[in-house]
What we know:
Layout: H1 4-26, H2 31-34, H3 42-63, H4 68-71, H5 75-91, H6 101-125, H7 140-162, H8 164-171, H9 178-201, H10 204-227, H11 237-262
Amino acid sequence: MLTRELRALLWFFASLAFGAGALLYLLSGNTDDTFSWTIKPPLTAAFLGSAYWAAFVLFAWSARQEIWVRARPLVLPVTVIAVLLLVATLIHLDKFHKHSLFGVFWIVAYIVVPPLLALALWRQRHAPPAPEPPRVPLAPALRAVLVVEGLVLAGVGVALFVAPDAAGDSLWPWTLTPLTARAIGAFLVGFGAAALQAVWENDIDRLAGSAYAFATLGLLELIALLRYQHELDGSGARGVIYVAFVVLVLLTGIAGSALSRRAVPQGA
């Protein structure tokens, strides 16, 4: 069963992700005054806002589960994102608005989040085990798509994080700063890990939270592109590939969500 400590922490993380998503997605052109650091262009802020709202969906879905095994797929992506964002924060500490509540809160939050998560997971590990429900394996086609998406997301994310200037210029369809490249890279690695984790778990029921998150991410990214489509001017093939991949993420999320709602475990 999911422990009370982990459930409470997941709801806390969900509230933080929802708030960050609102500031970045709805106020993407005003990060000078309403966020922890200045993000330009606004499409970058909207991208990060989409990622936070997708994370909110994953946190909220996982917090509502009674059985630990259904919430377990969030551990790897959340840990990866939290740790990489902490590293990016420490590398670019001078870029944060340390004179504002937003900047101080970000710094403190990402210093505190990893140990809190580690403690809650330690408590969960020592909780009495519950019987695992029967698995409903993923369709081979869905597994193949998830493998491709996971490898692409993780690969691009690692490149942006390790070499933000070079990877940003060669891989990304709009201009990124080193800090925003690393922040985006952190989320891409995390979502890539979520896709690969779903393949490893090989259970449509455990995929549900990640599927809802992918659908949210894809939909919000497409809306952001409509809002700021001029930012892709001159991006050429990179822009086309980016849009196509976002559509694929959306369709994968929708398909996974639909299959998880229809799935009935063998022997249930």
